[in-house]
């Protein structure tokens, strides 16, 4: 029998984070949900049967302390960097630089901080392990007004390749999943079925619909698993073909 791995998922209180957690839990893995919202992550973990950890991924000291704790509790085998924010929209001529910085701090710096801490953790344990970053096809296909978020995700793809080539000698694989728009509970509230906004997004997608969380989670599990043992440094679009248009 295969020993269950421990999978750490950041942004674990959100819809995509919980969907990814369900996928790993169904496969028999032990899941730790991390999120800066302690109340929300505890509730999500209790509902799913996972472990919870309140964590601000932009705080290197807090992240280092978390991995010290994980090391004493059996370690972490897989890191899913799902935490990210899409809170500010603005044209290039209008966006406040402070708002842009806030997105970069979470989506880029936070992802880097987690990769660095996980890599140090795995190297100290003798190597091996997998990282899956959640990117976005927006890093390759611009949408007016979303440039801050999309450029942060282009950076996530770049960090993925950087980490992949440097960590390969340690047996640590680093990949990304790049969704298009995903129908999380929050997005479904803002773009309900039949709404013009949802129809406009769907019209850009050759397969005709926005992704659901259950379309994203299997791709994450695949890249983290044995079936992807010879894959590193890729950013896999899960977008219904939107990048083809």
TrEMBL record:
The lineage of its organism: Bacteria, Bacillati, Actinomycetota, Actinomycetes, Micrococcales. GO terms for molecular function: oxidoreductase activity. This is NAD(P)-dependent dehydrogenase (Short-subunit alcohol dehydrogenase family). SUPFAM superfamilies: NAD(P)-binding Rossmann-fold domains. NCBIfam families: PRK07231.1. The keyword Oxidoreductase applies. Coiled coil: none annotated. Belongs to the short-chain dehydrogenases/reductases (SDR) family. It comes from the Bacteria. Residues 5-180 form the Ketoreductase domain. The keyword Ribosomal protein does not apply. Pfam families: adh_short_C2. Keywords: NAD, Oxidoreductase. InterPro entries: KR_dom (IPR057326), NAD(P)-bd_dom_sf (IPR036291), SDR_fam (IPR002347).
């Amino acid at each position: 029998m295969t020993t269950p791995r421990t999978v750490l998922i950041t942004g674990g209180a959100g819809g995509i984070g919980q969907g990814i957690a369900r996928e790993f839990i169904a496969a028999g893995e032990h899941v730790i949900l991390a999120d800066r919202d302690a109340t929300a992550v505890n509730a999500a973990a209790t509902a799913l049967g996972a472990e919870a950890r309140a964590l601000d991924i932009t705080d290197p000291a807090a992240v280092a302390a978390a991995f010290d704790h994980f090391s004493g509790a059996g370690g972490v085998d897989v890191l899913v960097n799902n935490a990210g924010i899409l809170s500010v929209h603005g044209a290039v001529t209008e966006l406040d630089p402070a708002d842009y910085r806030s997105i970069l701090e979470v989506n880029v710096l936070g992802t880097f901080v987690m990769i660095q801490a996980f890599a140090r953790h795995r190297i100290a344990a003798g190597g091996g392990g997998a990282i899956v970053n959640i990117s976005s096809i927006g890093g390759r296909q611009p949408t007016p007004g979303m440039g801050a978020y999309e450029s942060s995700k282009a950076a996530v793809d770049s960090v993925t390749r950087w980490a992949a080539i440097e960590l390969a000698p340690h047996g640590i694989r680093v990949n990304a999943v790049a969704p298009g728009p995903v129908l999380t509970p929050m997005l479904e509230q803002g773009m309900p079925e039949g709404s013009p906004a949802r129809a406009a997004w769907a019209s850009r997608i050759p397969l005709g619909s926005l992704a659901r969380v259950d379309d994203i989670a299997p791709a994450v599990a695949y890249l983290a698993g044995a079936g992807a043992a010879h894959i590193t440094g890729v950013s896999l679009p899960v977008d219904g073909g939107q990048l083809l248009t």
